[in-house]
Amino acid sequence: MGAELRFPLRYRIGGLALALLVTLILAYLILPQFIILPLSFSDRSYLSFPPTGWSTEWYRKIAENPSWGEATANSLIIGIPAAFLSMIFGTLAALSIGRGSWRSAGLMSAVVVAPIMLPHVILAIGLYPIMIRLNFLGTHLAAITGHTVIGIPLVFITVKAVLAGQNGSLELAAMTLGANPWQTFWRVTFPMIRIGVILGGILAFASSFDELMLSLFLTGAGTRTLPKLIWEQLNEFLTPTIAAVATLIFAFTLVLLAIASGLRGLGSRYQVKSHG
Amino acid sequence: MARINSDMGGARKPAPWSVADFYRLLAAPPALVLALFFVLPILGVIWRGFSDPAPGLTNYRRLFADGPYVQSLWLTVTTALLVTVLCLITAYPVAYMMARARNSVQQLIGALVIIPLWTSVVIRSYAWMVVFQRRGILNQALTATGLVDAPIHFIPGNVAVYVGMVHIMLPFMILPLVANMRSIDGRLLAAAGILGATPVQGFLRVFLPLSMPGILAGSALVFMLSLGFYITPALLGGPRHMMAAVLIEDQANRQLDWGLASALATVLLVLTVTVYSVYVRLSSRVDGGLAHGR
Amino acid sequence: MAKHGARISLIDLAKSYGNVVALHPTNLVIEPGEFFSIIGPSGSGKTTLLGAIAGFTPPSGGRIEVDGIDIAGLPPYHRNIGMVFQNYALFPHLSVFDNVAFPLKLRKLPRAVIAERVGAMLATVRLTQLAGRRPSQLSGGQQQRVALARAAVYAPRMLLMDEPLGALDKNLREEMQSEIKLFHRKISSTVLYVTHDQDEATAMSDRIAIMNGGRVAQCGAPRDLYEHPCSAFVASFLGGANLFKVTGIENRGSGAVSCRTAQDHVFDAVDPSSGSRSHTSYVLRVPAEVIEIAPAGGEVTAKEMNRAQGTVVDAIYTAGTFRYQVEIGPAEPVSVRRPATHRATMLAPGQKVAVWWPASSTLLIPET
Predict the structure, then answer these.
(1) Do the domain assignments include residue A171?
(2) Looking at beta carbons, which residues of chain C come within 8 Å of B3?
(3) Which residue of chain B comes nearest to C78, CA vs CA?
(4) What does C58-93 look like in DSSP terms, one character per residue?
(5) Can you tell me the distance from the alpha carbon of C107 to that of C251, in angstroms, rounded to the nearest whole number?
(6) What's the pLDDT tens digit per position in B93-140?
(7) Which CATH architecture describes the domain C8-227?
(8) Taking CA atoms, what residue in A is nearest to C56?
(9) Which of A160, B154, C38, C313 is within CB 3.0–4.6 Å of A94 for a Cys-Cys bond?
(10) Which of 3.40.50.300, 2.40.50.100, 3.90.950.10, 3.90.1150.10 would CATH assign to domain C232-366?
């Protein structure tokens, strides 16, 4: 056919070159994370190719040092409540802006999303004096507050996306059938957005778990989070213990990601399409 | 079973009911939280820039007098710009392939983009340290193959910062690009072909312009994130490549000069908001883009 | 079976959005148990009207009385209406049974009663075997039936339907139209049916209101509207009408008139207002199916007929009907619809023909 003749070797090579380029870029994107894996098992304090030998020494060092366990606990104590609060406030914001027919809906959305767009350092030095005044600073509350603020946009965005996928007619239908606004929310809206809320919550938790800047200002000796401890270690000694910690965190991240992807797959079951 | 209005007959007409009213109430709690813990702190920062240690413009005068601060701000902007451009060039082919590929390939590329996105920035920056450090694998490869005589000091340094930042920002450029490209109807390119365009012409004249909203969205996002970035420049750039966020943190935490830190932060805020407004202005002319809340 | 539907009265019901008037003050009375359709082009206000009655669109003025009670201040969940949406709005996370049971559960009915009523309703729409399925597993027609069942299971006195068949293909639509009609007879509530398809409305309704530009253009039984349209808009919306612009009118007594058209034909017509004309511009309306057509030279000379000579411009055959476009003057097309009986030969484009029709079927009506 004429169409085939129009695509001479030139274009095939072009397509191949593109694929090669993309592969290189993807390698650039994915490989660095995996470099820390062999380093954490190395028997030297640096990574070498070819590897000189294996050891689990660095993992043992984690177990020996109670700071790691403490920091992990702090990260969880801060992250889980922050994620929950983000889920609540982010969902309320998404519902209100999504269904409230506000004239300035665009502006309101921008304000809700702003915490993740603006540099965290600004928020950090802004919250610090307020946390002092509220006496939150010695406790986990300071970090929980800060992490909630940066978690709200994430829940907002995911829930809003789910809401946009279904038009409001489901809720209107429920109301014509006799459901008052609370019943409508609980029996119709919430089951629909539940997946989006949980997904947003996971995102918020992941963001809190990784948050460094806010923790630098809002946590202290007793409430130090994992990123902050890693940061301190990085700036002082550069041992592969950090690689071991990083590997563990990376594994944890992959688990979270798998859960989130599974949820997203579940969510698409709820799209009803009429076949006519 | 309709509830009869009890104030019938002579009473004033009941106000019409509206669905939206209920939903508007829901805005109150998040509005309160954001007002107290987001808007208020930022206002406080702006205020402190003008009032600590004494009311007036001293902090700003210090900032803009020739010196390290202006240099740092300039460096921040130029770095962010360069990172954005590099990201765009690197991300476009990936996004292009991902948007036009078969489902299985799409999922694969998607996974390869999402995994780094979810990985902690600290960890990713650390990984680049491992690559770039004096005894890191890059130097090992370079010395082993004889390309250089002695290990290069990548860290602290510009190259490491750019490589690291582009790596972190790449998913933020790829995803908006893909989202936009997916919505470009493939039949438009087929139509261009029927009308006589070569694939290259089809790309330049049809696909590229249509991908503009994605380009704008991704670039705006990466630029704004790069302006305020801390972790990677701090780890890989050190004192020779001090970006604004690093400077602000240093002033606040170590130098304890909160006034100057706040003034710096205010400038950074203004820069970021400016970028966003430019983006909004441009994108309303181009159609489509980041979530706008409608 | 006694009519259990509500009487709905709209009194000066109006809705504006800022400066834009979506609905001018409208007055309508819908009788209990009636199947009442509202049709009109987009933007005519029919959706606004429905929204006001359902409770989603707060009116800017006027009253909505259901059995004498003003419901304008009531939220939808207190109005006890049933509503069927164009996209069915079935709850995807509930089974068919649970969808239909939803309103009954809200009313806190005992489980046994719920099971019985849902079962009866599913039997009425013939979906008993599919009770356990999810909406995503049903076809469009089946989903529509579930929506019907759900909207009627708690015996509301009025059922609102917003273009419910818009998403279905032609054959399915016609099947569903009979279903809905049957359904209406069984539940005997008042049905308010909004559609843009005039054939659908004509086939199903007791009365129709045609809306245009936020006002009711005409309201009445389908045949009345078709045979006695009160304006050119109504005539052309219902389709199948020829309209001739009128330049001069001469009264000939007792409602008969003689009219000169823009192309200088003179036709005899009937004036329904019997001489008391108050509009500025008028048209003559002739339905396409009363016009006879024959090759030139073969006409019937009969009294009380309007006739004209012309050329066939287009000839189409569709499922048992010949449709001709004949030009009897420059830019004056006439649509003729004749049954395609077994032996009739179809006329061809370019053929010279004569057309004629009874003066009594020629109606003088205002343009707007």
Answers:
(1) yes
(2) 74, 78
(3) B2
(4) --SEEEEEETTEE-TTS-GGGS-EEEE-TT----TT
(5) 64
(6) 999 988 888 888 888 898 899 888 888 898 888 888 888 877 777 777
(7) 3-Layer(aba) Sandwich (3.40)
(8) A172
(9) A160
(10) 2.40.50.100
